[in-house]
């Protein structure tokens, strides 16, 4: 085709149902018909940045006969065949005879011929009811075949229902020359390169235009780690239940707040360097509330508040030692001490979810650090029943329904209870938390009214997270072996699986 010939060219394509194939007369260099998408792609590419052509899309519809429709257009409708097979006169034809003549289509033809009042019955025979007929179905189908249309939409609907014709969409492109029209496609440069600048080639280069409408690659933003997702869910539960978040933003504590304030004796095995990470530099803290420290020393040594104490020689040097906090209960003790100093007591509910450290042998389920979920409620007249009831509500909100409580021991709580839940997947009772009522030996030296009871509990954040996300090795959750795509692709956490 020469340049002059390409004034306006209409390229027509039919949809997949089309009997003419995908495109009409548009062939590629291998003489194969080009499919519609390829054609559109080529037009877009030639028009958009190259501006070689311009095109407009014209949509139209065409009616095409089915095989059966074509057959009728050629040879007449089934009803016309029935009419023609019946000889004129009173005799007519016996039905079984007609069936022999026309075969399978007799029934449809007969029905339609009755409907058209072309035939009637005379005993067992069918006879003509009119002298001559006009086979309108055939005429309609011939019209559709030659024009692709029919003026009466009712006829089209009826013939479509009878599966004699079907509607197709035709998409045509009206193509004209664009400002950069040419019969050869010049390769366009996408980027300006250092070589192009050096050689001066950039001056002649034909640059591809920017496509400001192109969708960018979605940026990979940050993703919350599964632990942080579960933490967020738990925070919402706490907030919903009226809790305040404790400030847990320092990992280093003194032994005093981590152990002594909690009535944990200085010879307790947890205070050994095998269980706790102590700091070397600085190794100690000397900032303590003096009077309170004295009362703590006294309760450890000689007791008080109805207790006989531990009866050992309490040393300040031990309390001064700095460590990486072994539990967030260190923060709870500090918060309760501050609560005791307030002029007026108001019941409080505190929680925190943060990191703690223990000098433990690392294995598939333990690391030297983990996150603790801690809760504290202080009010007058609280009982163990309140603690159990609270646990049931709290864990219930996490989807944990079956709880059992087992007596346990903590130096700072009495009574103490371990919380167990039945794990469907594991088929056994698993420990999910530790809890208790803080001892008077811990609360009263702080200056809290002896009528104030404090119920408290702690659980690991890792355990529910691992169960929830089906992770059985903690190293897949934390540390250098973590697969980043696991973090990206994990869904938000809704507590239903624990
Ligand atoms: N501090 C306990 C632990 O680390 C948890 C706990 C908190 C128990 C408060 C009782 C009361 O396991």
From TrEMBL:
GO terms for cellular component: cytosol; phenylalanine-tRNA ligase complex. PROSITE patterns: AA_TRNA_LIGASE_II. The lineage of its organism: Eukaryota, Fungi, Fungi incertae sedis, Mucoromycota, Glomeromycotina. One of its GO terms (molecular function) is metal ion binding. It catalyses: tRNA(Phe) + L-phenylalanine + ATP = L-phenylalanyl-tRNA(Phe) + AMP + diphosphate + H(+). It comes from Funneliformis mosseae. GO terms for biological process: phenylalanyl-tRNA aminoacylation. It is found in: Cytoplasm. Tetramer of two alpha and two beta subunits. This is phenylalanine--tRNA ligase. InterPro entries: aa-tRNA-synth_II, aa-tRNA-synth_II/BPL/LPL, Phe-tRNA-synth_IIc_asu, Phenylalanyl-tRNA_Synthase, PheRS_DBD3. Keywords: Aminoacyl-tRNA synthetase, ATP-binding, Cytoplasm, Ligase, Magnesium, Metal-binding, Nucleotide-binding, Protein biosynthesis. Its EC number is 6.1.1.20. Its main location: cytoplasm. Pfam families: PheRS_DBD3, tRNA-synt_2d. Gene3D superfamilies: 1.10.10.2320, 1.10.10.2330, 3.30.1370.240, Bira Bifunctional Protein, Domain 2. Residues 229-491 form the Aminoacyl-transfer RNA synthetases class-II family profile domain. Its cofactor is Mg(2+). Belongs to the class-II aminoacyl-tRNA synthetase family. Phe-tRNA synthetase alpha subunit type 2 subfamily.
């Amino acid at each position: 085709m020469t340049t002059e010939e390409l004034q306006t060219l209409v390229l027509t394509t039919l949809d997949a149902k089309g009997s003419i194939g995908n495109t009409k007369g548009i062939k590629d260099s291998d003489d194969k018909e080009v499919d519609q998408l390829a054609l559109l792609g080529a037009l877009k590419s030639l028009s958009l940045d190259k501006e070689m052509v311009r095109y407009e899309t014209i949509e139209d519809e065409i009616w095409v006969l089915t095989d059966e429709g074509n057959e009728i257009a050629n040879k007449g409708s089934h009803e016309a065949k029935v009419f023609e097979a019946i000889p004129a006169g009173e005799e007519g034809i016996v039905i079984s005879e007609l069936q022999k003549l026309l075969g399978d289509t007799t029934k449809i033809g007969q029905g339609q011929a009755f409907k058209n009042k072309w035939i009637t019955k005379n005993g067992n025979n069918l006879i003509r009811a009119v002298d001559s007929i006009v086979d309108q179905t055939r005429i309609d189908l011939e019209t559709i075949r030659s024009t692709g249309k029919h003026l009466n939409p009712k006829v089209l609907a009826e013939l479509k229902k009878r599966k004699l014709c079907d509607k197709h969409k035709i998409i045509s492109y009206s193509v004209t020359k664009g400002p950069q029209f040419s019969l050869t496609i010049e390769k366009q440069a996408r980027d300006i390169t250092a070589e192009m600048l050096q050689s001066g080639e950039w001056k002649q280069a034909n640059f591809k235009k920017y496509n400001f409408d192109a969708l960018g690659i979605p940026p990979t933003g940050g993703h919350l780690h599964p632990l942080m997702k579960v933490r967020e869910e738990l925070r919402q539960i706490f907030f919903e239940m009226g809790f305040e978040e404790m400030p847990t933003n320092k990992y280093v504590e003194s032994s005093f707040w981590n152990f002594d304030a909690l009535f944990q004796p200085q010879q307790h095995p947890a205070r050994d360097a095998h269980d706790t990470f102590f700091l070397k530099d600085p190794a100690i803290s000397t900032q303590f509330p003096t009077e309170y420290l004295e009362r703590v020393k006294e309760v450890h040594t000689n007791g008080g508040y109805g207790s006989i104490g531990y009866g050992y020689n309490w040393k300040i040097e031990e309390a001064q030692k700095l460590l990486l906090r072994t539990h967030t209960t260190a923060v709870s003790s500090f918060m309760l001490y501050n609560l005791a100093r307030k002029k007026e007591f108001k019941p409080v509910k505190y929680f925190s979810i943060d990191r703690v450290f223990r000098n433990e042998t690392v294995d598939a389920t333990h690391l030297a650090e983990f996150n603790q979920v801690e809760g504290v409620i202080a009010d007058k007249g609280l009982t163990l029943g309140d603690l159990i009831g609270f646990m049931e509500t709290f864990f219930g909100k996490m989807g944990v329904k079956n709880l059992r409580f087992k007596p346990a021991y903590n130096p700072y709580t009495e009574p103490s209870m371990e919380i167990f839940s039945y794990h469907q997947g594991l088929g056994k009772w698993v420990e999910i938390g530790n809890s208790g009522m803080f001892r008077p030996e811990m609360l009263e030296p702080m200056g809290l009214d002896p009528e104030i009871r404090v119920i408290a509990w702690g659980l690991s954040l890792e355990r529910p997270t691992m169960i929830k996300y089906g992770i059985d090795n903690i190293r897949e959750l934390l540390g250098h072996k973590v697969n980043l795509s696991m973090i990206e692709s994990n869904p938000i956490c809704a507590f239903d699986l624990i």
